[in-house]
């Protein structure tokens, strides 16, 4: 985010407000990029040859087809509106929420839906206020998916009405009991809900020691030390309170949300899972403690050393990449790796993020969404610890220039074996058109098809839902109806939730893997998967993080194109166990249990 009004020290002219200012350290960045490109990464394996990592050529792929998505939220019984409580004071928090989660809380094989909600705000709201929910219209909501595919509101039964001005949600089975738990972020204090396994949840925040404070945003469950228990990273946005700060021109209708440069960065929380229902804050101890303006978080082993790494999308400052050193600590290497700024050395309004191998070369790449006129940042992993800014070469720059993106996920919507890109869009400033007549507050969703050599905007051809304009924010991805085609749930600021059902007509095949850890954390978060067909290899990381404020289905989806068989699937579990499956048939949801070490290959 954003706001287009900068402090005088940040930009010289009003014309600079829409784009991030060029950092004075751009020259340093360029120098470091040249130096680090030649440096080996400790623990890194040599790049595999073409015979090992075969990439399918574009000519080998099935015929290109646009997507077909339809908004089915209302017909499925989901009628939820996020309470932002916009005021005349333009408090920054009003324009930022909120998140959504897709997860199977009752283990019936069907994805359920959790939606985060805000609270009423007084106009004005006194400084120091911690807003609270006033009634059912402000509750967070849990929707259970019934056997007929419709949803029922089970919020009260589950005990998940919530408290405070909600922002984000993270899903993970922190006690390895087989039931997914919920962590909900908010302004002024967070909540951890333990899944009791009987359709109810218990607020265990106090005894767990994870209430936090300040303005929390995205969170991620991940086993940072590979002890078999999920730890928790909680981002915070800025040091902020309900101060009455006027930003924008001082005339009626021109007041605007303040740019984040007005506010100081803040450190995240990192909680180690002690294994007894309690967590210990360890951010400084392990080195994930740089003050930032964190909005999005994603995880992957980008240098392929067998250890999970963390990326943080920051707003209008350097982006952070935390490299796992393997000794229980992390080092921030964003600038040296080439992902801290854009290709010109400029900072930008990092918001949503995904950390996925989009070009099937075995190396996790990064996409970071930002504000209109900045273009979405695509970083291609070079395999030597550095990244190349690929927004222009991939075509994403042209596609995204006029948009503001939030929730974003790579997803193979047509099952052709190439991961496409879906983005929830909408500006943060409701008066943006006054200053910039070519921009809009409400924006359509973006669907960019991966051709194998770049991205092409197929939004206009992929259903009327892509011609609707929303103030998009959070987004979660998952196969809601288990038909092998990935669906999406999108939240809007002060608006309705939308469920985008994937109805793309395709004969392409697919495979969904549901991993269950034993020596590893039960969700298998952090597991690295390579799937091989006669057309080449695809790679994925098990995670519920990524996007913006949201949590997606932990099951891993692969599109197989015309292939009916996966020749081999190699799973590198967080425990270090390597499991190989052979001759796996397509078009199924396959449960894979982590084996004992002596039975891993079969």
Topology readout:
Elements: H1 26-37, E1 69-71, E2 100-103, E3 112-115, E4 141-145, E5 151-153, H2 155-158, E6 165-172, E7 181-187, E8 191-195, E9 201-203, H3 205-208, E10 216-222, E11 231-236, E12 247-248, E13 255-256, E14 269-273, E15 279-281, H4 283-286, E16 294-300, E17 309-317, E18 320-324, E19 330-332, H5 334-337, E20 348-349, E21 353-356, E22 365-368, E23 377-381, E24 387-389, H6 396-400, E25 405-411, E26 420-425, H7 432-435, E27 446-450, E28 455-457, E29 472-478, E30 487-492, E31 498-502, E32 509-516, E33 528-533, E34 536-541, E35 556-561, E36 565-572, E37 578-585, E38 589-593
Parallel strand pairs: 32-38
Antiparallel strand pairs: 1-31, 2-3, 3-4, 4-5, 6-7, 7-8, 8-9, 10-11, 11-14, 12-13, 14-15, 16-17, 17-18, 17-20, 18-19, 21-22, 22-23, 23-24, 25-26, 26-27, 27-28, 29-30, 30-31, 32-35, 33-34, 33-36, 36-37
């Amino acid at each position: 985010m954003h706001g287009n009004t900068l402090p005088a020290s940040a930009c010289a002219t009003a014309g600079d407000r829409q784009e991030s200012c060029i950092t004075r350290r751009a020259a340093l960045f360029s120098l470091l990029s040249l130096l680090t490109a030649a440096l080996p990464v400790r623990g890194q394996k040599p790049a595999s040859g073409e015979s090992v990592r075969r990439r399918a050529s574009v000519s080998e792929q099935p015929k290109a087809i646009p997507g077909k998505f339809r908004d089915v939220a209302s017909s499925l019984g989901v009628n939820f509106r996020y309470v932002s409580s916009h005021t005349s004071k333009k408090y920054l928090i009003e324009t930022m929420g909120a998140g959504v989660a897709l997860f199977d809380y009752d283990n019936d094989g069907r994805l359920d839906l959790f939606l985060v909600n805000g609270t009423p705000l007084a106009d004005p709201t006194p400084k120091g206020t911690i807003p609270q929910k006033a009634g059912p219209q402000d509750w967070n909501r849990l929707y259970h998916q019934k056997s007929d595919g419709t949803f029922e509101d089970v919020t009260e039964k589950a005990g998940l009405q919530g408290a405070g001005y909600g922002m984000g949600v993270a899903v993970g089975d922190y006690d390895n009991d087989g039931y997914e738990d919920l962590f909900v972020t908010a302004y002024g204090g967070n909540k951890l809900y333990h899944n009791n396994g009987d359709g109810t949840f218990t607020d265990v925040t106090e005894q767990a020691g994870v209430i936090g404070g300040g303005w929390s945003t995205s969170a991620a469950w991940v086993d940072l030390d590979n002890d078999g228990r999920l730890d928790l990273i909680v981002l915070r946005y800025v040091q902020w309170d309900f101060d009455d700060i006027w930003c924008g021109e001082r005339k009626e209708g021109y007041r605007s949300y303040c740019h984040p440069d007005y506010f100081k960065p803040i450190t995240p929380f990192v909680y180690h899972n002690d294994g007894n229902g309690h967590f210990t804050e360890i951010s400084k101890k392990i080195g994930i403690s740089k003050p930032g303006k964190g909005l999005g978080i994603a995880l992957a082993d980008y240098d392929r050393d067998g250890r999970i790494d963390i990326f943080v999308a920051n707003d209008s400052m350097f982006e952070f990449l935390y490299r796992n050193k393997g000794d229980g600590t992390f080092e921030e290497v964003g600038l040296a790796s080439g992902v801290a700024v854009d290709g010109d050395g400029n900072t930008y309004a990092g918001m949503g993020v995904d950390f996925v191998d989009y070009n099937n070369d075995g190396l996790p790449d990064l996409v970071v969404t930002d504000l209109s006129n900045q273009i979405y940042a695509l970083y291609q992993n070079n395999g030597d610890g550095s990244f190349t800014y690929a927004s222009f070469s991939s075509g994403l720059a042209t596609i995204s220039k006029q948009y503001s993106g939030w929730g974003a996920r790579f997803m193979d919507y047509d099952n052709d074996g190439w991961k496409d890109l879906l983005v929830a869009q909408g500006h943060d400033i409701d008066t943006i058109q006054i200053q910039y007549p070519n921009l809009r507050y409400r924006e359509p969703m973006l669907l960019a098809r991966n051709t194998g050599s770049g991205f092409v905007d197929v939004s206009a051809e992929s259903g009327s839902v892509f011609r609707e304009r929303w103030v998009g924010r959070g987004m979660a991805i998952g196969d809601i109806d288990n038909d092998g085609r990935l669906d999406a749930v999108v939240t809007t600021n002060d608006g309705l939730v939308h469920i985008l059902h994937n109805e793309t007509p395709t004969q392409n095949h697919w495979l969904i893997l549901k991993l269950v850890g034993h020596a590893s954390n039960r969700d298998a978060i952090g597991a690295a998967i390579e799937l091989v067909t006669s057309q080449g290899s695809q790679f994925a990381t098990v995670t519920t993080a990524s996007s913006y404020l949201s949590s997606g289905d932990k099951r891993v989806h692969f599109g197989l194109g015309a292939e009916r068989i996966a020749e081999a699937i190699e799973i590198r579990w967080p425990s270090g166990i390597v499991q190989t499956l052979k001759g796996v048939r397509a078009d199924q949801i396959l449960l894979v249990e982590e084996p004992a070490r002596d039975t891993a290959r079969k």
